[in-house]
Amino acid sequence: MVERRTGNGSWEQIAVLLLGESEFYDTTAQSGVAYSYRVRNANQAGYSDYTSEVQVAAPTLSILGGDDQASAPGGFAPAPLQAAVKDSVSGVPVAGFPVTFTVTQGDGLLSAGLNGTGPFVKSLTVVSNSSQGAATVYFQQPLASGATSTVTATAGVAGSVQFTLWTHQVVGFWRFNEEGGDAITDASENGNTGALVGGAVRVASFGPADQQADWQVPGGTALQLNGVDAAANVPDSSTLNFGDAAFSVSAWIKLDPSLSLADDSNIYPIVSKSGSTGTGFAFSLKGSAGNGVVFDILTGGVVVHEIAPLQSDASLLLDGRPHLLAFTRDAAGKGTLYIDGADVSTPAGGVGPDMSGTLNTPGDLWIGCDESGHFYKGILEDVKLVASAFMPAEIQAMFDRDNNGLPDWWEVRYLGVIGQDPNGDPDGDGATNAVELAQGSDPSDPTSVGAPLVRKTAGDGQTGPAGAFLAQPLEVTVTNSYGTPLPNAEVIFSVVSGGGQLAITSGATNLNTVLTVATDANGKAQIFYQQAVNGSVTSSISARTGLTPAVTFTVFTDSLVAYLKLNENTGWDAQDSSGAQNPGTIGSDGSIAWGIGFDGLAGLNVNGSAYSDQVGLEIDHTTNRVIPDTGGAFSISLWFKATALDTDKAYTLVTNVTPEPPGSNVVPESGFRVVLDGGLLGAGAPQLVFSSTEYGGTLHVPATTVLVTGHWYHLAVTYDGTTAQIYLDGVSAGSGTGTINGSPAPLRFASGIPDLQMLDGSLDEIKVFSKVLDPGEVTTLANTYGNMADLDGNGIPDGWEYRYFGMNGVNPLGDPSGTGLTNYNAWKLGLNPFRGGTTDTGGVLQLNVFTHLE
Predict the structure, then answer these.
(1) How many CA atoms lie within 13 A of 564 on its CB side?
(2) Residue 744, SS3 per DSSP
């Protein structure tokens, strides 16, 4: 006999068990209520004593995960449905408790396994596990779009819970599995049937050989496009215009690996719907700033919103493998891009960019091309448009539902079902599933030869000057999965970012952004990389063969694009020591002569011809853009000395303005100038001016430092596209903002331009950079002397003596300032010997005294 009570209430007999029965289920208990139980036996002799009182509570049933999910019709919900059984008092999980899941609304089905093999049923009973008390089933959505399903889980006295699931409103789904003809069928319920155009053909899917009922796994046949005229057209319909609501687009792609994603002109549309009127969209592969893939909102054919990955995924997309791309816009208009199930566009802790816009263009929908004439080249499969926002877990499940690192299409194609162990070796060939995936071999065939493996063996991480070939080639070694070198393997090298070009040999003129090279007898292949003249500081070059994942070389551009030491002391050519091959040409009309530079070595003397268009020193700018286009950053460093600073004149130091004849009414509309104004342009005292206002720009920055004749100055000017800075002798002397219109004119030094004359003085040690120098770098340049020789043996470098005294042989113990600061100590401290304890710009410094030893 079994008795029960609650709290301190009266005992009540609730059951009598027959001889041999040892278990009793209290089906009248209420979930969450604590009960006390006791038991005693009875026979002809009477009653036994009661057992000890036992206090228990009916367990509770709660949802552990899987509620409120969405996915495509026919696909599995992204997460399993999990109900947890726990003790209602202690909260401890209860193991082994039966829980029955039943589809109580809708046409979906349940399965105990994730691999898609079933059985699929409407009702399924499973028991709770020991770790969380969780009972788990998987839900396969019905085939209808916009359908809502309810699954009820019950666990006897533990009660019941309900899961709500729904399918997306799919407005278009093109699988390209038709048996022939040009028509492409819309697998959704909207009848958005289209047609193939140009050279579009169907080919075998990279996935399973048969079309999958599961809408998440591609299979059967796919669409192959030639990148020239092949595409698919779907006529406009109201269902293809999403208004300002949430929507999503996804597609499986396998981009032709011979393509390039190196710059903005490399555009390969996946699906687009835009026109000259209304607002539309375009989902495309795009190079350079597109970082591999972009989604654009366009109004009247003009991009108004664009989203791209935070970092370049070009190498990944060009690796010859299938990839799942997806874009989703939520109800707030925020966008997110996904590659292979991973969010690639949202910053950590942030939200996606604004992708709002009322999509209402009357234009047709195109698969594989856009209205601008770009065409996709490669394979497309399962292009899907949905009138709702994909959830992150759902997109991850589209690619790898079991989250084991093996794409579902690969598992189903080779092994029949998903849920494979990545460390398993089903064919017993010694290669795990993960390795077979990486090397492109068949995990079910022990005789399958793995795809070649590519590894970098030389050239990675180099730094070289802009516009020049790197010193070392980029080299890879190709082997089979066992490490044996493979000769005659074709390796495709591609410029992913950076703007440079590839060549078979260093110095070659036949340049390309994609080159295919065969490996030699040792399995090695190499190419040479020529840096972009004004390209990115960092460049990426990928190398791959077949389906092998690409390896990526990262190389760096030295920002020094020209370095004219001016130490030749003869002739009319100034050599470029930067390696970027930007030499200078010296004017030979008598305006220029060789002389002594700031450091006692050679330099240029300029005679200051009045209002002349004569060329002093010129760097050609037409082929290699030494100064960037409008908005680009640059810096210029040089040494100069003025012999004359007449108050009615202004002298050019640097310009890239095309000179016109004196008195001409033609005013150049681009370029800049750095002028030494003696007073002609309004300076109250001789000063430098960095400006573009005379040539269509808005920049005008005067220096605050008053200049004197007979003194060598170090000048640096920097410009970041907005802000300009002038430095004299390593110290800031002026700054301001404004625009400079890029000019193709040569970069000239001490050259005459209309109404301004050539420098009357000397010029030395010119450096041009394709970046903004920071103050520390400028200071270093101002305190570096090319001539560190000490020919007079006085302990002071000759270069320092020539800078301040115009000769060597000065007395190291001399004190020209009369402040007790010797020449030797001034050199050691980096001070001007004529200004005592101050820098060249007058700042007072604390002195440390050095004793000069004879």
Answers:
(1) 28
(2) coil
